[in-house]
Structure to design on (427 residues):
């Protein structure tokens, strides 16, 4: 059998074609890039977790008794759960691109990713980062409210006794609010219980339990600040 | 340039460092792997020796081109096998062929020992069945069996070559052995039946 000296041929090609090894900097840059992408995935996951935590702890659990599981399903922050899942997959993908990342099993990566995002996310929640980011998105992306915030949708059913919006005017026994669809409502507060009334001021957002009296007049039984500071 | 004796005394990792200063030393490194990699290419592909040599040439060029990317946390052997594996898979895709492997007698004997077929294997006809059974099992299982039993690689090395978790490699080997035995037994049972 004919035998070629492949090593010699390859060596001659290297010299003839003047092939040079790729610079070390390129490989170092790639390594830094992959690790940056891994850490970015953890940070975004942690922010998602902080917002999930905020949504769960800030949810109107006093309504659970009235609406049951339906209430839970309608108010879960699905978008952020999805974000957590997507960035876990992204993190796993880039971690596997790191030097020895492929040696770890998927279970190991999921456990490490979730532990990191839970610890960091709780910290973010504690310092208010989650709430701050969600508010920023809400203020800068009008569509966010409609698509993402299930809680807004849940509180936008005046026919079922659930109304919410921003206070435009305050009068004795009456409030005027603009709901999230832009409709102006007159709220009869004469027989309502107002929770955390220090936050009932113009520009504040509120959620109201009660029933439609007629047209756009709503008789309130309970009024709460949009943020559950006093439950 | 190092002479043959000096070259033999150096580890792969030392040779990589010297090659980055003196490119001629790469020859010393590539010679060390020439035969092993050529057989490895032929075992995992249906390439003729000529085709396998072409793939190997590309492997050496790629290895040299990416030499700065070699990390000393890995074994050089695993790294060059990985490049070889990827280059072979890529060449197979380009040729779009279904693999039908033919192992050499010495390889088949290694399989007999490793897969504990001593009792079942009586003659060269049975070795033909080993060959057939190996060709029938999925590429991913055959690949790990070749690396484990013919190239005698450790689980961690196989994990580094194929870029898969060590636990996955363990499962693939276990499952590969089982599937191989099933295929092999099917073949010899069929032959006994036909013989009767």
């Amino acid at each position: 059998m004919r035998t070629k000296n492949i090593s010699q041929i390859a060596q001659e090609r290297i010299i003839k074609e003047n092939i040079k090894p790729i610079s070390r900097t390129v490989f170092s840059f790639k390594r830094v890039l992959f690790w940056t992408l891994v850490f970015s995935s953890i940070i975004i996951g942690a922010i998602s977790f902080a917002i999930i935590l905020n949504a769960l702890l800030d949810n109107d659990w006093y309504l659970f008794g009235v609406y049951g599981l339906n209430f839970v399903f309608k108010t879960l922050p699905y978008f952020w759960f999805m974000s957590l899942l997507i960035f876990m997959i992204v993190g796993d993908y880039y971690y596997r691109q790191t030097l020895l990342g492929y040696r770890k099993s998927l279970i190991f990566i999921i456990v490490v990713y979730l532990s990191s995002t839970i610890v960091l996310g709780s910290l973010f929640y504690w310092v208010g980062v989650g709430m701050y980011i969600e508010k920023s998105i809400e203020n800068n992306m009008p569509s966010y409210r409609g698509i993402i915030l299930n809680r807004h949708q849940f509180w936008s059913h005046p026919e079922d006794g659930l109304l919410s919006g921003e206070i435009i005017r305050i009068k004795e026994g009456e409030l005027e609010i603009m709901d999230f669809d832009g409709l102006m409502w007159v709220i009869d507060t004469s027989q309502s219980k107002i929770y955390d009334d220090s936050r009932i001021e113009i520009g504040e957002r509120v959620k109201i339990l009660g029933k439609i009296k007629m047209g756009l007049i709503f008789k309130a039984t309970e009024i709460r600040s949009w943020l559950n500071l006093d439950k | 340039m190092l002479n043959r004796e000096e070259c033999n005394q150096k580890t792969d990792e030392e040779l990589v460092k010297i090659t980055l200063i003196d490119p001629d030393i790469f020859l010393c490194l590539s010679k060390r792997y020439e035969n092993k990699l050529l057989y490895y290419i032929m075992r995992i592909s249906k390439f003729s020796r000529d085709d396998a040599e072409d793939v190997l040439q590309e492997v050496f060029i790629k290895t040299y081109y990416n030499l700065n990317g070699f990390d000393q946390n890995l074994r050089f052997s695993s790294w060059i096998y990985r490049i070889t594996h990827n280059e072979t898979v890529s060449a197979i895709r380009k040729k779009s062929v279904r693999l039908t492997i033919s192992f050499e007698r010495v390889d088949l004997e290694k399989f007999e020992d490793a897969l504990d077929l001593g009792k079942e294997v009586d003659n060269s006809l049975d070795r033909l069945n080993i060959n057939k059974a190996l060709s029938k099992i999925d590429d991913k299982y055959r690949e790990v069996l070749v690396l484990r039993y013919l190239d005698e690689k450790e689980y961690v090395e196989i994990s580094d070559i194929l870029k898969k978790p060590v636990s996955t490699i363990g499962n693939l080997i276990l499952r590969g052995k089982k599937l191989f035995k099933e295929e092999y037994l099917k073949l010899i049972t069929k032959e006994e039946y036909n013989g009767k």
Notes: The longest helix of chain A spans residues 24-57. Chain A touches chain B through 27 residues (CB under 8 Å). Strands of chain A lie at 162-171, 174-179, 184-188, 193-194, 205-214, 217-225.
